[in-house]
Amino acid sequence: MRYRLLLMGRNNSVIDDFFKKMSDSFEAISTSARYEDIIGHMKYFKPNVFVYCLNNESRETLSIIVTIKYKYKIPFIVIGSEEECIEFEKIAVNISDLTLVKPLTASFIQERIIRFMESRPVTVPDGVEVSSLEQLLEMPELVPEQRRHVLVVDDSVIMLKVIKEHLSNRYDVATATSGRIALRFLERKMTDLILLDYQMPEEDGVSVLEKLRANEATKDVPVIFLTGITEKEKIQKALVMKPQGYLLKPIDKEKLLEAIKNVIG
């Protein structure tokens, strides 16, 4: 079984080793740091694992990596010097599933990745018979998707509690009481959807959404506004930012679940 590896990073010597010395175990393809290129390779190559070969990577690139990890839930391996790996962990907390610190030989890298992939748990739906990990990897549609993640941003603690109770059976939910806290959260972790309060004391939802859209790492994260405002002018101001929807408060549970389902499933 040859695992499909998507390679990225500036360490060309390590990337070359995958093509020249590890091709018997891995089917590898490299991608650029452009978000669109990575998305294209993820969609059409369908890698089993993402390998990031560090060499003086930019913070902007690291932010994109965080987005990819949480968007696709793909196993993530980092290869770099001790200093590079420590710096990566500071910026992209808990992103790496396996960290390999140089100096390393190609044979050692190959052995560790194979062992890592073989040790990963295999989950199969009821009623489906799969005899091996290799067979399962050839049928990715059999593996249930992980729960999607929702970030709720609202200055009302009561509202956060109510929405979290509404969603907790279907989604993983994180909460933030201000746009500032939400933006700090997104520097470390990514989400599949943001439920964003329109009116907040420090800065309103429109201002927060402007910052999200200006950031390469968060510009494509879907946003649904939560608002108690019914004035047409203010609603239009929100819609100019092209959110994926808006819901009026008090929030109806069924309408909330339907809106989220229409955006992220």
Structure description:
The chain is α/β, with parallel strands linked by helices. It folds into two domains: 3-142, Response regulator (Rossmann fold, 3-Layer(aba) Sandwich), CATH 3.40.50.2300; 149-264, 3-Layer(aba) Sandwich (Rossmann fold), CATH 3.40.50. The protein is built from eleven helices and ten strands. A five-stranded parallel beta sheet has the order 2-1-3-4-5, with helices on both faces. It has a five-stranded parallel beta sheet with strand order 7-6-8-9-10, sandwiched between helices. Helix 7 (157-167) links the parallel strand 6 (149-153) and strand 7 (172-176). The longest helix has 14 residues, at 59-72. The two termini are 32 Å apart. 29% of the residues are buried.
Task: Describe, in short, the structure shown.
This protein is of the alpha/beta class. The chain contains eleven helices and ten strands. Helix 9 links the parallel strand 8 and strand 9.
Strand order in the largest sheet: 2-1-3-4-5
> Alpha-carbon distance between the termini?
32 Å
Helix content: 40-55%
Quick one: overall form? elongated
